[in-house]
Amino acid sequence: QQQVKQSPQSLIVQKGGISIINCAYENTAFDYFPWYQQFPGKGPALLIAIRPDVSEKKEGRFTISFNKSAKQFSLHIMDSQPGDSATYFCAARSNYQLIWGAGTKLIIKP
Amino acid sequence: GAVVSQHPSWVICKSGTSVKIECRSLDFQATTMFWYRQFPKQSLMLMATSNEGSKATYEQGVEKDKFLINHASLTLSTLTVTSAHPEDSSFYICSAPYPTSGAAHEQYFGPGTRLTVT
Q: Is the Cα torsion angle A28, A33, A37, A42 positive or negative in sign?
């Protein structure tokens, strides 16, 4: 019940395209859903986050869509750029602890 | 955004020796910090929760006598890998929740420490 399932494991998108990464959870006690971006050899960096009382949050080219009834949330990267190539992790928070998805390696082809 | 630093960024040590990794919150106080390890191409695995002024809480399967955690102040937590062995080689990352408006505490991560045990 504490798991967060992330898909796909890897994703290749053409420059300018839309990258979509999905996550699903079971625990309804989760109260905060962040997405992190990680480059090789670096720590994760908070990208964007959403609370369960909001269905969508947009920050620049990054959008989180949240479906509370389906217990799913997704990250959309619009106009994907080569610099977006990284590993993306979704997470869900319970009592200040983060439960992590397995990660998605995103490659943006120029 | 909040800044969390780690030192060292990488370390190589011989099998049997101990290594200390520092995690600092630079512009905020953190009563709680988290320690993770990450193997190549894998997700982050929470090792323990570091609590200022009290004992750390370890996740199941993590040896507390091997991974010593000390949260000496509101801005510093240390992880000491004792009697390190090659299987302890990994990427160790700390994080700290930052109190923002609305109480949606966001976790900010350090840059990580690459430990290689030879």
A: negative
